[in-house]
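[SOLVED] Predicted holo structure with adenosine-5'-triphosphate

Edit: marking solved, answer below. Original request kept for reference. I posted the sequence and ligand SMILES and asked for the 3D complex as structure tokens.
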Amino acid sequence: MNTQSITTLLNSIIIPASNRTLGNEKAVSNVTIDNDGIHLDLTFPYPVAHLIEELQQRIDQAITAEFGDTPLFVQVQLAIGKHKVQPGVQTIAGVKNIIAVASGKGGVGKSTTSANLAVALSRMGARVGVLDADIYGPSQPTMLGVAGQEPRQHAGQMIPVMAAGEIQVMSVGFLVDTDQAVIWRGPMVSQALQQLLFQSQWDDVDYLIIDLPPGTGDIQLTLAQKIPVTGAVIVTTPQDVALIDARKAVNMFQKVNIPIFGVLENMSVHICSQCGHTESIFGQDGGKELAATLGVPLLGQLPLTLTVREAMDNGTACILAQQQPEIANLYEQAAWKLVQALADQGKDYSQRFPKIVVE
Ligand SMILES: Nc1ncnc2c1ncn2[C@@H]1O[C@H](COP(=O)(O)OP(=O)(O)OP(=O)(O)O)[C@@H](O)[C@H]1O
């Protein structure tokens, strides 16, 4: 047994719920052997709290099988990097990656998805922010249980409201009377979104989820032109009318070179809370087929359930894992696919090179 043979063995171990090995991720470092046993560091480019126990077991088994019973001391750390965005847009202090959650059609569950993905990412160990950009119907403060709270001001900036002590939340609803927003014109909408993003004091956010309004209007245009977006998630129901609009949203992102990280099919089946009977109210597999056509991951197929609707209305998205662990697990699996797709996106090295000015 030496550090090289241990590293080689570890490199071949498959990370749970993925087709990646520790070697693929260059996760293993600082392998040492002393009288206590084997010590090593594992570094990941995405959050892994949800699978660390299983991974630890795989490592223990592999080491024991190869080298016998040897105490193992594993230190896990995250190195979530900043990834590539559209060229020429200003970066946002304190935010590494922006994920836009979009749908073509309204009411398909985009806000529900945004809130639950944010909670899942946070449970997985990432630092998460949510920006509610749905000017015509902001719902994140309600869903995340911070309705009625106001961001504090500090040095001319706004400090996001904290949901469940860990998710940084900003919403147009904190700033404006959204009853008035319906009569806003394009430039005002664009201004509000930029103000929320650039004048908030984000605290080292790995993933900032932007909950967009439905459609492909002014907010989406601002997003594409002015905001450093790493990629987008498309939410749709399996229904044809929703899918047609979802494709429009996809086209818009593709035109501006914002990658699509995946499709999440919401309201795939209805599960009756009384008898558990399932029914495909909005058709079947539409989102799955859209994902296949686009060649992007299907992040999940989420059922329509009373518990989810109630959790969103009651502001308990943050404790859905206790109320309905099966549904929270589906969101966790979706978030896991999402962060893997994001990690495959090129890194942003633009800050490392000096600007070359030709005079
Ligand atoms: N999987 C689900 N199960 C139960 N209820 C759901 C589910 N997804 C969404 N809902 C409910 O459907 C309604 C619409 O969802 P949501 O507000 O997330 O949609 P949206 O696409 O963001 O809508 P908008 O067009 O207002 O932006 C909400 O009351 C929400 O609680």
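OP edit: The mean pLDDT is 89. Thanks to everyone who chimed in.
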